[in-house]
């Protein structure tokens, strides 16, 4: 059978990995796909660099639309990134009847509903395994491997930059700003790391997983997003003393009144496998009613790990290229005509309605009655206390200090309730600094 022809938009780190892995493993890939898969055309603004990667056998152009206009190209791989030109090119490729493979989680989290609808109308596929957790085949697992299950929740370390920073803060006892500079020096963090450290990148990814897990449209605008910039070394140390580690988690959960969709730092029990994922690695835990708990671990970024996911999508498309579009796996696992129904029955909950437990750290005056006032306010609000840890004043502020840290772990309570009681505690004259609140996830 004639090889399927692929056009590649962008041949940077991931694009060169795709080309190299496809060349190196061509025989193996062809045996699996049932036909050859060849990148025959590449578009990149740096034509000379692109030619150096692909050699003489591939046509290189500086205009992505030349690939879309080529009738011989069956699949377009979009590796440009961002929301702007990438969105236009993906929609143009779909309109031209091309299948699309993309690693662009930001594009799909924000414009996925429009893109998937256009692809369905045209009878083409949009595959995006590489958009979430790099080389870990989590999209395939959620969309196909776990299809018998009613997914109950997903919790993932899905941003390697923030996990590297938190791992370094814990192991070296350093504050965030110091470790961020080191992460930038080592290449783990971008010069502008905002998307990573503020949780936006993780929120894009968990938005896609949530849609696939629960059969709802992608709704990034409804996700709660909180990054790691306000975490201090003290909180990581105290968490460790209490038997927890702090991780930036992307969480989506089926609740009584809808779906939780949130990204924030979380205390996770040290005995959980996911709590022991260190450095720039990724991991995702999925809880299904039939299968129980499953864990997916691996490299969440990098040239060849991400290329692994891109090529897996190419193979899927090569296998299903001639199949009836009605009998392909739906983009978001559930049949498209059922997603609208899910919007009514499974709304994304506002953060105030989320129920979880909490770690609170209060810098307080070291005097009698402070603990009683604080715990009294929690009791009045109906918040049950799991544990209390009070540090010695000289341990916190040095010899002769008149301040101390009070650490409280709570049982489950509604976020809106916790917001109100934190405001009351903050108003106490004996509370001397802004209260630190970190959510706690047992992941049972």
UniProtKB/TrEMBL annotation:
Keyword annotations of the record: Amino-acid biosynthesis, Methionine biosynthesis, NADP, Oxidoreductase, Threonine biosynthesis
EC number: 1.1.1.3
Keyword field contains Protein transport: no
All residue ranges annotated as the ACT domain in the record: 359-440
Pathway(s) of this molecule: Amino-acid biosynthesis; L-methionine biosynthesis via de novo pathway; L-homoserine from L-aspartate: step 3/3; Amino-acid biosynthesis; L-threonine biosynthesis; L-threonine from L-aspartate: step 3/5
Broad enzyme group: oxidoreductase
A Pfam family it matches: Homoserine_dh
Family note: Belongs to the homoserine dehydrogenase family.
UniProt-listed NCBIfam families: PRK06349.1
Protein name: Homoserine dehydrogenase
């Amino acid at each position: 059978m004639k090889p399927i022809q692929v056009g590649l938009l962008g041949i940077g780190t991931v694009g060169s990995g795709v080309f190299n892995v496809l060349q190196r493993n061509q025989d193996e890939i062809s045996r699996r796909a049932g036909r050859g898969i060849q990148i025959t055309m590449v578009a990149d603004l740096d034509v000379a660099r692109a030619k150096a990667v692909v050699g003489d056998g591939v046509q290189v152009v500086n205009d992505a639309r030349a690939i879309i206009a080529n009738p011989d190209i069956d699949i377009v791989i979009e590796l440009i990134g961002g929301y702007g030109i990438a969105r236009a090119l993906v929609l143009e490729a779909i309109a031209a009847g091309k299948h699309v493979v993309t690693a662009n989680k930001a594009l799909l989290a924000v414009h996925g509903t429009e893109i998937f609808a256009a692809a369905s109308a045209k009878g083409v596929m949009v595959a995006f395994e590489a958009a979430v957790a790099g080389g870990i085949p989590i999209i395939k697992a959620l969309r196909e491997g776990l299809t018998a299950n009613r997914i109950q929740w997903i919790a993932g370390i899905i941003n390697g930059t923030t996990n590297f920073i938190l791992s370094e803060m814990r192991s070296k006892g350093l504050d965030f700003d110091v470790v961020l500079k080191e992460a930038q020096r080592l290449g783990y963090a971008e010069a502008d790391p905002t998307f990573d450290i503020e949780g936006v990148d993780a929120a894009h990814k968990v938005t896609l997983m949530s849609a696939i897990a629960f059969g709802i449209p992608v709704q990034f605008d409804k996700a709660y997003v909180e990054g790691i910039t306000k975490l201090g070394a003290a909180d990581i140390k105290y968490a460790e003393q209490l038997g927890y580690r702090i991780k930036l988690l992307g969480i989506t959960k089926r609740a009584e009144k809808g779906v939780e969709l949130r990204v924030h730092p979380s205390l996770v029990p040290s005995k959980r496998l996911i709590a022991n994922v260190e450095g720039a690695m990724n991991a995702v835990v999925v809880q299904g009613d039939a299968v129980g708990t499953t864990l997916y671990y691996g490299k969440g970024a990098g040239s060849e790990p991400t290329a692994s996911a891109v090529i897996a999508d190419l193979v899927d498309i090569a296998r299903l290229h001639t199949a009836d579009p009605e009998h392909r796996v739906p983009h978001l696992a559930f049949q498209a005509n059922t997603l609208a129904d899910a919007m009514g029955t499974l709304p994304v909950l506002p953060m105030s309605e989320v129920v979880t437990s909490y770690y609170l750290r209060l810098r307080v005056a070291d005097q009698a009655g402070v603990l009683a006032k604080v715990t009294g306010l929690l009791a009045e609000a109906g918040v049950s206390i799991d544990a209390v840890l009070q540090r010695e004043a000289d341990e916190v502020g040095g010899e002769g200090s008149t301040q101390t840290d009070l650490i409280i772990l709570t049982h489950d309570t509604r976020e809106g309730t916790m917001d109100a009681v934190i405001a009351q505690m903050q108003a106490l004259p004996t509370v001397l600094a802004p209260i630190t609140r970190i959510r706690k996830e047992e992941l049972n």
